[in-house]
Amino acid sequence: MTDAVLHGLFAQILTDEPVTAQSGPLAAAVAFRAVTSELGQLSGGERVLLEEWLDRVISRAGAG
After folding, report:
1. pTM score, whole prediction
2. pLDDT of 15 higher than 80
3. Is 62 a member of any domain?
4. What one-character-per-residue DSSP string does 9-59 give?
5. What is the C-alpha to C-alpha distance for residues 2 and 14, in angstroms, rounded to an integer?
6. Structural domain includes residue 1
7. pLDDT tens, 22-43?
């Protein structure tokens, strides 16, 4: 029975569809937001402002 439950769980989670990379402005904003903490060339204030702008782009894209 345990194997059947595990198989059923995996069947709900896993898929055979290939993973495709997202492209476009939203994907670029998400990728850029992920590395803003590594941008040592920016001052703290500049980094915070950039993060605010990117967060706004990302959140508004999800809303509409």
Report:
1. 0.62
2. no
3. yes
4. HHHHH---SPP----SHHHHHHHHHHTGGG-TTS-HHHHHHHHHHHHHHHH
5. 18
6. no
7. 778 899 999 999 999 999 999 9
Is residue 14 a part of any domain in this protein? no
The predicted pLDDT at position 1 comes to 63
Do residues 61 and 26 lie in contact, with contact meaning Cβ atoms separated by under 8 Å? yes
* Three-point CA angle 58, 18, 35, nearest 5°: 35
What is the domain count for the chain? Answer: 1
Full residue range of the structural domain in which residue 36 is found: 21-64
Q: Contact at 8 Å (CB) between 50 and 42?
A: yes
Identify whether 51 is part of a domain: yes
